[in-house]
Write a structure and sequence with these properties.
Elements: H1 3-7, H2 12-38, H3 41-61, H4 68-76, H5 86-104, H6 112-122, E1 142-146, E2 152-157, H7 164-181, H8 186-200, H9 207-221, H10 232-238, H11 240-251, H12 262-288, H13 295-307, H14 312-318, H15 324-336, E3 341-343, E4 350-352
Antiparallel strand pairs: 1-2, 3-4
């Protein structure tokens, strides 16, 4: 048994919890992937909200101070030449890298070179990181927790500089080999990869942020498409103490016989399961509100709701200032997105909400 697989041997009770969580997550995965294929109106807006939450939370976990609102404003009016503060530079770096992953995850292989490229891109705008971005660390580093009151706490020591290259090579090889073999569930492989990556801490800075980006990359590659539409990073930020404790539990016996990562595995899977519940709720709220319609469509929908059933001719009389072809297109769009329904055919068709 190799050194990674050995750490994944849990007691009976832990195994049952792991199996139960994986079952819940995979059930939701199948359900969500059907929604994903429909490409409906809600997905774009959900991803936009999740992206802002992910950027905000992941940078704040590492000591950033920008609020989600400030990040949204920055993204709406971003001028790279004017990124003066470290917070702004890190936010745009995270946004750029997340977008690269969203758009290209099928073509990004899990190799050391690609990991270095993502690190390079993550810190591309950060002035203080110019010398070491995209390169493994040259100085020892530690995992430090940053708290809102400014206090820093050392969580654990990491892999020594001279061992990083070998450990990263072994980790990447093992991970890809396991994905190909399909003998271990992909979520367990992903959980192990992130734990080992954080333990090695291969780069001088940006390891925490990159680990969360790599989590998204791996989950997308394993067909967990829902991860784009709800923020894992946000859940970690809200449970930061638990996140560090789960890491520390394994780290305290790092590289010795009784190194146990069960607490980390359960933490990761539990939060992933919570994410599916959170997304389910968000999606239902979006649907109940009728999605994100433009102002014209909202007015048509409200009038229809108050006066249903209505024919196109009824709507044309009420909204005489709107071209009838535009009304027809709006109705078709809202019907396709399951915001309204139609009954009957041809001129006798009526619409209801």
């Amino acid at each position: 048994m190799d050194k990674y697989t050995k750490k994944l041997s849990f007691d009976f009770q832990t195994n049952q919890k792991v199996l139960n969580l994986i079952s819940q997550i995979d059930l939701y995965k199948g359900k969500w992937n059907i929604i994903e294929r429909q490409e409906n109106i809600y997905l774009k807006e959900l991803r936009k909200i999740a992206t802002i939450e992910s950027i905000g939370s992941s940078t704040r976990i590492e000591g950033g101070t920008l609020t989600d609102k400030e990040i949204e404003e920055l993204l709406n009016d971003v001028k790279i030449t004017k990124l003066k503060t470290r917070d702004e530079q890190e936010v745009i770096g995270y946004y750029d890298t997340l977008e690269i992953i969203y758009e290209n995850y099928e073509n990004i292989r899990l190799t050391e070179n690609y990991i270095k490229q993502l690190h390079q891109n993550l810190l591309r705008h950060s002035d203080k990181d110019t010398r070491h971005r995209g390169q493994y660390k040259s100085l020892s580093n530690k995992v430090v927790a940053n708290y809102p009151d400014g206090i820093q706490k050392v969580i654990f020591n990491t892999t020594e500089v001279h061992l990083v290259e070998n450990e990263m090579r072994d980790l990447v090889h093992w991970t890809n080999e396991q994905f190909e073999k399909k003998e271990i569930h992909p979520l367990i492989i992903a959980v192990n990869f992130i734990y080992e990556f954080l333990s090695i801490h291969p780069f001088q800075d940006g390891n925490g942020r990159l680990s969360r980006l790599l989590t998204t990359l791996i989950l997308l590659q394993q067909d967990y498409m829902f991860i784009q539409y709800v923020s894992f990073e946000n859940l970690i930020e809200k449970n930061k103490k638990e996140y560090y404790q789960a890491l520390m539990e394994g780290q305290k016996n790092r590289n010795i016989e009784n190194e146990n990562i069960s607490k980390w595995v359960l933490y990761f899977l539990d939060k992933l399961s919570m994410l599916t519940q959170r997304l389910d709720t968000k999606y239902d709220v979006f649907k109940s509100k009728g999605g994100y319609l433009n102002e014209r469509q909202k007015k048509i929908k409200e009038y229809l709701k108050e006066n249903q059933p209505l024919k196109i001719s009824d709507l044309a009389k009420r909204f005489a200032n709107i071209n009838i072809n535009t009304i027809k297109k709006d109705l078709q769009y809202m019907k396709k997105e399951q915001i309204i329904k139609s009954i009957g055919k041809g001129k006798g068709t009526v619409y209801i909400t």
